């Protein structure tokens, strides 16, 4: 019979495996969607030039696969979309076990070939991860997991600054 502690650690390990596989799935779906997009563009070019499309490619270029349609309208890059990016950031933070600086997160995400939307800047990464409730900002420039019990500095009550309108005093 399993002890409660063994059961809990087994559940945690299985949860990590599920998250890792979800991240892999997001990357594979993104790569598939990109390949299908490339095939559709090449097929259009071939059609414009009057070039015969190989039999193996016929039908593939006519409609997007489930992978492409599951993108839910998100622009996907070479390795997944926003879901894959979030899963990867959560995996990176989980592996680190402590809050990380945004630049370190950028480096880790880049090392895993995950595309950051927009220009791929820190601001773009922050825009994506700040919307996810699983990720918190315990202090300026650092991000961690909410499951660690960290308080999000952004949610701390502090007075809001008011901008002065031009010409008024």
Can you tell me about this structure?
The chain has 169 residues and is mainly alpha-helical. The chain has one domain (4-154). Helices cover 49% and strands 7% of the residues. The chain contains 5 helices and 3 strands, in the order αααβααββ. It has a 3-stranded antiparallel beta sheet with strand order 1-3-2. A hairpin with a 2-residue loop joins strand 2 and strand 3 (142-145). Helix 1 packs antiparallel against helix 3. The chain starts with a helix and ends in a 24-residue tail after the last strand. Residues 64-78 have low confidence and may be disordered.
> Roughly what is the average pLDDT, rounded to an integer?
81
Estimate the strand proportion: 5-15%
Structural class: mainly alpha
Q: Name the helicity range.
A: 40-55%
Rg measurement, Å: 22 Å
Shape estimate:
flat
Strand order of the largest sheet: 1-3-2
* Uncertain stretches: 64-78
Number of helices in the DSSP assignment: 5
Q: Work out the count of structural domains.
A: 1
N-to-C CA distance: 74 Å
Largest sheet: 3 strands, antiparallel
Order of helices and strands: HHHEHHEE
Secondary structure: number of strands: 3
């Amino acid at each position: 019979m399993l002890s409660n502690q063994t059961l809990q650690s087994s559940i945690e390990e299985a949860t990590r495996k599920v998250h890792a596989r979800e991240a892999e799935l997001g990357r594979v779906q993104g790569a598939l969607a990109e390949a299908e997009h490339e095939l559709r563009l090449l097929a259009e070019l071939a059609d414009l030039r009057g070039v015969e499309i190989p039999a193996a490619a016929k039908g593939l270029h006519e409609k997007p696969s489930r992978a492409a349609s599951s993108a839910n309208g998100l622009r996907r890059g070479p390795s997944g979309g926003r879901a894959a990016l979030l899963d990867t950031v959560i995996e990176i933070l989980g592996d680190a076990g402590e809050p990380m600086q945004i630049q370190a997160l950028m480096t880790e995400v880049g090392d895993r070939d995950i595309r950051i939307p927009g220009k791929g800047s820190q601001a773009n990464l922050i825009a994506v991860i700040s919307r996810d409730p699983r990720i918190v900002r315990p202090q300026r420039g650092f991000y961690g997991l909410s499951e660690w019990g960290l308080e999000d500095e952004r949610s701390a009550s502090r007075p809001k600054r008011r901008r002065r309108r031009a010409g008024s005093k």
